[in-house]
Write a structure and sequence with these properties.
- With about 170 residues, this protein is of the alpha/beta class.
- The chain folds into two domains: about 110 residues, FAD/NAD(P)-binding domain, CATH 3.50.50.60; about 55 residues, no CATH class.
- It is about 20% helix and about 30% strand.
- The protein contains four helices and eight strands, in the order βαβαβββββααβ.
- The strands form two sheets. A six-stranded mixed sheet has the order 3-2-1-6-5-4. Strands 7-8 form a two-stranded antiparallel sheet.
- The longest helix is centred in the middle third of the chain and has 14 residues.
- The two termini are about 25 Å apart.
- Bound molecules: flavin-adenine dinucleotide.
- The site of flavin-adenine dinucleotide has 31 residues, from helix 1, strand 2 and strand 4.
């Protein structure tokens, strides 16, 4: 442990959920650290869709804008991976493995927003096409590939009858 830092909240994961939570906390004058391993679920996709005002934005741009918004309110966002969490009296100890160092921060509260991980079937070539033209979610990807077909969606049903973006995924 090279240094000790204390925050109101440490946010584990800096995808859409973690950054949005951090933004709300930072605007509420909470001291916030976001630690993000940099592998959001939609990273393979070229563009974000069905997000009002940001349709067509590359995911990396969306997250860069989100990080800037959190920082604008004094939040700290850094690249790294949380490798351990422990209760330490009234606080939580958060072990952070960053590329250049490892250290421990403490927080009054944790916001765990580590997303889900897609587990792809072991089909040759499939992983390389994931998010490009092997698509899981008709609602998010319709119009992206020039076809309404997607690899793992059943035939069309009204969107409200099946959850979007949830099949073949495990929470991390
Ligand atoms: C191919 C594809 C295309 C999609 N397209 C769209 C779309 O167009 N529109 C739409 O609305 N939705 C889309 N989605 C769904 C969207 O990606 C998810 O709903 C969204 O990413 C969920 O955000 P999240 O913050 O919960 O998780 P994630 O985006 O997965 O972010 C979690 C973050 O936590 C980090 N993390 C995990 N463990 C740790 C740890 N121990 N320490 C530090 N950091 C950690 C990860 O590296 C990651 O950066 C798509 C999904 C896929 C797979």
């Amino acid at each position: 442990m090279s240094e000790n830092e204390n925050y109101d909240v440490v946010v584990v994961g800096g995808g859409a959920a973690g950054l949005n939570g951090a933004l709300a906390l930072a605007r509420s004058r909470r001291s916030v650290l976001v630690v993000d391993a940099g592998d959001p679920r939609n990273a393979p996709a070229g563009h974000v869709h069905n997000f009002l005002s940001r349709d067509g934005t590359p995911p990396s741009e969306l997250y860069a804008a989100g990080r800037a918004e959190v920082r604008r309110y004094g939040g700290r966002v850094e690249a790294g991976r949380v490798t351990a969490l422990a209760r330490d009296g009234e606080r939580f100890g958060v072990r952070i493995g960053a590329p250049a160092s490892e250290r421990t921060a403490t927080a009054r509260r944790l916001l765990v927003a580590t997303g889900v991980r897609d587990v792809l079937p072991d089909v040759p070539g499939l992983a390389a096409r994931w998010g490009i033209d092997v698509l899981h979610c008709r609602t998010a990807t319709a119009g992206r590939s020039g076809t309404s077909a997607s690899a793992s969606c059943p035939p069309a049903r009204p969107p409200s009858t099946r959850p979007c973006c949830s099949s073949n995924s495990v929470r991390t």
